Amino acid sequence: MTTLLLATTGGHLRQLDQLAKRLRLDDTRWITNEDEQSRALLAGRSVDFIPYVGPRDVTGVLRCVKSAHRTFGERSVHTAVSTGSGVALGYLPYLAARGVSCHYIESATRVSGPSVTGRLLSTYPAIRVYTQYRHWAGRRWSYAGNIFDDYEVLAKASTRSDRFRVVVSVGIATGYSFRRLIDHLIPILRAGGRLEQRIGLPVEVTWQTAGTPTDDLPIETRETVPSDELGELFASADAVVCHAGTGSAVAALQQGRRPILAPRLPSVGEIQDDHQVQLAEELSSRGLAVARDASAISVDDLIAARDVRVRSRTDVPEFLLRR
């Protein structure tokens, strides 16, 4: 009997990949979109790639229903688990109506309540829904754990090298620019900039900029970086600066880095709502990140990042699905 693991690429996929280790499921098959991240993250695993489903993409959701019908007909599907977003709307109601045990785990990004996807799926009694936060669990929403429970912060013995390495990443979504972050960091991180002046070492920067236009800027950027390469860059960095997306935060934590998280703000058109502000505050309260407005990141923040490490805990309990 097959268990389907369903997620859109980006933070949704990275969360499900991490949670899958705590779900302890056998005979799994992944359903996601094909891009550099998913190819690297799921290499060697059983995967069906489907077209990308964007935010509020009704046509994309309907395509997923057709894919769900085909998958159900080809495989003996017993269980389906999803962390969202649009792929969950296309697959879970269809599969639940055919007797498949269906589970939707709301993103850890949603600190104060469910997403639109979560609210819609919670109206289906046959779909079990889970929050990753105890404070808004209730009769309909169960709590079984949080992906950030996997990590703890350690002080790190200071080491020095011949350069200071920084990774700046704004995630993989191309629909919104985060130019405010890039513009603020250039004077700090450029050759001869404020960080180099303070520490007396050359600063080496990787700029991953997705949909942020940078052609007019005096920096070399990369729109995307493969997941495995980005992990290596995070692991070797002295400081990691990210937008406050779940996928970026988890990627940094998995590599032992405590990121500086800069939330995108809806008030200036960088995102649709304030969930990144909530996530940055949550991780800051756990000590797993430093939350800063994009225009407030300082040289001191970058230097302090060098001397803190994160490690994965070995005592995290299983994420128990309701039956």
From TrEMBL:
> Molecular function (GO) terms listed?
hexosyltransferase activity
Question: Could you tell me which SUPFAM superfamilies the record lists for this protein?
Answer: UDP-Glycosyltransferase/glycogen phosphorylase (SSF53756)
Task: Identify the domain of life.
Answer: Bacteria
Q: Which Pfam families match?
A: Glyco_tran_28_C
The UniProt record lists the Glycosyl transferase family 28 C-terminal domain at 227-289
Q: Which UniProt keywords apply?
A: Transferase
Instruction: Please report the name of this protein according to its UniProt entry.
Output: UDP-N-acetylglucosamine:LPS N-acetylglucosamine transferase
Q: What is the source species?
A: Pseudonocardia sediminis
List the top taxonomic levels of the source.
Bacteria, Bacillati, Actinomycetota, Actinomycetes, Pseudonocardiales
